[in-house]
Amino acid sequence: MENYDFSRNTHYTVAAFIIFENKILLLNQKKSPYWLLPGGHIEDDELPQDAIYREVFEETGLTINLIQKPDTKAKTEIVTPLPLPHHIQLVPCRDKRDVTFVFTALSSNNKIILDKESIDYHWFSKQELLELTDFKGKKLGPNTKYYGPKIIDEQ
Prior knowledge:
By secondary structure, the protein is an alpha+beta fold. Helices cover 21% and strands 38% of the residues. The longest helix is centred in the middle third of the chain and has 13 residues, at 48-60.
């Protein structure tokens, strides 16, 4: 990623709960002990919604549709509303911290093309998210286990 200053103490990132047929996509990335949502850093001069579309495509090959839509009633001559994330979270990450804009999105298919950061993927059902603490030797994080079933129910 050429357009990002990794020396910063606070990084701004995006992630997405991607839904297909009532299941949520998680990635097994080489560098993490957890199954992760697709996502990554917001590059300099990039908007959060542009970053999530880019990151998801780079990591999975998927083209997604965000569930959150901008509030068009708030548009003025000088203000353009952006899609609101499902939630925003602060995550400690090694020697820094990530402020992550977490979106929800729909995919029209489940055909994944992994990038070099990931070694596996799985579409998790609500039941799996509720019952499993780990899968194939990697943990399911508490936020994924908390939000995932709720997001599936919202569909």
